[in-house]
Design goal:
The protein is mainly α. The chain folds into 2 domains: 91 residues, no CATH class; 59 residues, no CATH class. It has 9 helices and no strands.
């Protein structure tokens, strides 16, 4: 017969293993979304991108629903939703962008540092990329979010790229080039080689444009 203490220890171990299994499952689901996003954004023909991201947005929502209360699925649902908005008509894009913002705000509330501050980076990019309507087109908010993201991950490729792109739009060419070069020199992200390759091409294209 097992003692009460032995039963307690076994129960704790089982709960721990269940927690690790759930974390692994969520990590696998997030990785699948990341690769699907990179494929859709960098490799899918433009004419097919709206339909592609419409389907991927639905898939991302399923992952969020499966892991409630976690910031990571919300972040990726937000990123995919905001990307979907990019390929929609002007009549649909505004509502989709607002939905993306709300998802990212919810993720920020849970854990602003999750995925190296990706919610902050994505919110910053939304506030300067989406044309002015409602609360969008707010460059002050964009700067605040992007600078917060850089504090979380000063060497990150996305954090430096989006801040560099923002600075280029603001007309600060010298500073933009500095951050874009930091983005090019960012440490590689294991398992994100496809996204890194696509982002490097974006960074180099903007650097070439600013260097003319």
């Amino acid at each position: 017969m097992l003692s009460r203490m032995s039963k307690f220890v076994i129960a704790v171990l089982l709960l721990g293993w269940a927690g690790f299994a759930a974390a692994d499952e969520m990590g696998d689901a997030i990785a699948e979304l990341q690769h699907a996003w990179a494929k859709g954004y960098y490799s899918t023909p433009e004419k097919q991108q709206e339909e592609y991201f419409d389907a991927l947005q639905a898939k991302a929502h399923e992952v969020t629903a499966k892991f409630p209360g976690r910031a990571e699925p919300l972040i990726w649902e937000g990123i995919i939703t905001s990307t979907h908005a990019k390929y929609q008509s002007i009549f649909s894009a505004g509502g989709t962008a607002k939905k993306a913002r709300d998802l990212l705000l919810a993720a920020e509330k849970i854990d602003p540092n999750a995925l190296d501050g990706s919610a902050l980076t994505s919110l910053g990019s939304l506030y300067y990329k989406v044309p002015s309507f409602g609360s969008f087109g707010d460059h002050k908010k964009a700067r605040e979010y992007l600078e917060r993201a850089l504090k979380v991950n000063p060497t990150g490729i996305d954090q430096n790229f989006f801040y560099g792109e923002f600075l280029s739009i603001e007309g600060d060419k010298a500073q933009a080039i500095e951050y874009l070069k930091k983005a090019l020199a960012a440490p590689p992200r294991p398992g994100r080689e496809d996204a890194d390759a696509g982002r490097h091409a974006e960074i180099q294209k903007l650097l070439d444009k600013l260097s003319k």
